[in-house]
Amino acid sequence: MSVRRFAKLGAYRAAQWSRVVPTVWMLRNPFKIHEYVEVVSGAGLKPGQVLLDLGCGKGFQTQIMARSCARAIGLDVAPGRIAEARRFLKHSCVEDRVEFLAGKVEEAGLPAESLDRVVSFCVLEHIPNLDQVLAELFRLLKPGGEMHVSVDALASIRNPELLARHRRDHHVVEYFTPATLRQRLEKARFEVTEIRPIMTGEFARTQFEDRIARSDFSHGIFARARFTRRLQEDDRRSGSPDGIMLVARARKGAGSAGA
């Protein structure tokens, strides 16, 4: 283990023992902080629920959400990310509530109607077999269960070179519009309750373009707090239908069969 990784793990362990984290401010990208708040604030997480974090990465967000429910499952197709997530989980105050799995959701063997919530942060646009994955998520949710997701739209980004670079660098299969996202969710038999853009203002657009060009979305702790507040204020004032991302909420009807 490198000195840097050892120091990072030690700081994380100390923070966990002090009950300060997990917290959304562990995310160095303020766009992701804003995204997390927008998705989770409307997810209705409650004690007793079982949650799946689809495309969990290193699992920080999974751990944050686990504080609000009975059990959280983080799943990612990248084994290296899951290995990292498990290392950090060993020093977490929610270790007994979280499980990390490597692989594809359609191959994970999770039981039908075993989930209360599915949450995903900008993952669906990277999935080539999205219809199959959405059908599996529908099967896994209990009747009345809900899915809360964000997806990349980049509707306000007009520069085709930056769009092409973002698609290439982040392996994007499809950018969504409200209409195309609704069509995919309804095809999987979900009842769509909300689709709305976020990061709709000029500040979000110019800053996102700059970060694509720099291939770096990270900020220091104080800068990310100021940046996130600016994104929130920008969304409240903008009123534009075009945003960097979309937030969608959908449910499995109470009378729907799992299979």
Could you give a quick summary of the protein structure above?
This protein is an alpha/beta fold and 259 residues long. The chain is built from nine helices and seven strands; from the N terminus they run H-H-E-H-E-H-E-E-H-E-H-H-E-H-H-E.
Explain this structure to me?
This protein is an alpha/beta fold. It has one domain: Vaccinia Virus protein VP39 (Rossmann fold, 3-Layer(aba) Sandwich), CATH 3.40.50.150. Helices cover 41% and strands 19% of the residues. It is built from nine helices and seven strands. The protein has helices at 3-17, 30-40, 60-66, 79-89, 130-140, 160-169, 178-187, 202-214, 221-238, and strands at residues 50-54, 71-76, 98-102, 115-121, 141-152, 191-198, 245-251. It has a seven-stranded mixed sheet with strand order 3-2-1-4-5-7-6, sandwiched between helices. α2 (30-40) packs across α9. The longest helix has 18 residues, at 221-238. It is globular, with a radius of gyration of 18 Å.
